[in-house]
Amino acid sequence: MHVQEWLDTVPAVAVYAVVGLVIGLESLGIPLPGEIILVSAALLSSQHGGIDPLVLGACASAGAVIGDSIGYAIGRKGGRPLLAWLGRKFPKHFSEGHVATAERSFQKWGMWAVFFGRFVALLRIFAGPLAGVLRMPYWKFLIANVLGGIVWAGGTTAVIYYVGIVAESWLKRFSWLGLVLAVAIGVTSMLVLKKKAKNAQPVSAAE
Questions:
Q1: Residue 126's closest CA among 26, 53, 207, 204?
Q2: Which residues have CB under 8 Å from 55's CB, separation 6+?
Q3: Which of 67, 76, 106, 111 could disulfide-link to 28, CB 3.0 to 4.6 Å?
Q4: Claim: this prediction has a pTM higher than 0.85
Q5: Which tens digits make up the pLDDT trace of 20-42?
């Protein structure tokens, strides 16, 4: 079953909880499809009156901030042995190459890597734990974490919600245009056939 179809079968409160939980776990460092869940829920909110996009965005933002904070604490306590363990458990996401790439981003951009990492799938998983492993000052991490979580989760929800509203409105107009076009084609075809039949009558009479 498609994610959006599944979300449509559960109550609104469950949608909020699932979105917050999945995004929180992804931000904590567990490879989960947080962005897919968020986009599907935001699109559903544009078609489902029972799902409030403001509440959805708030839950997604809270999940992102809390998950990243827990990931930071775990990374700070676990250190590099934690990254090695994650590499063995999730080699596709925490390979040495991925860790090295993320680490270079942190060394170059500092707290901005946490902020902009929200918009990159790989860094979104790494940001919290890696910031803790590298012992980034918590106040810097917290500022970037909160701002990044709100801008990414809230912004994604708002954009997808309004895209869904516009798309639904456009499709409704398109359906009416399609009906008008179909009627116009039908009437035109009838007139053309009628004209051809009328022109054919004198020819038949002359024969």
A1: 26
A2: 16
A3: 67
A4: no
A5: 999 999 888 787 888 888 888 88
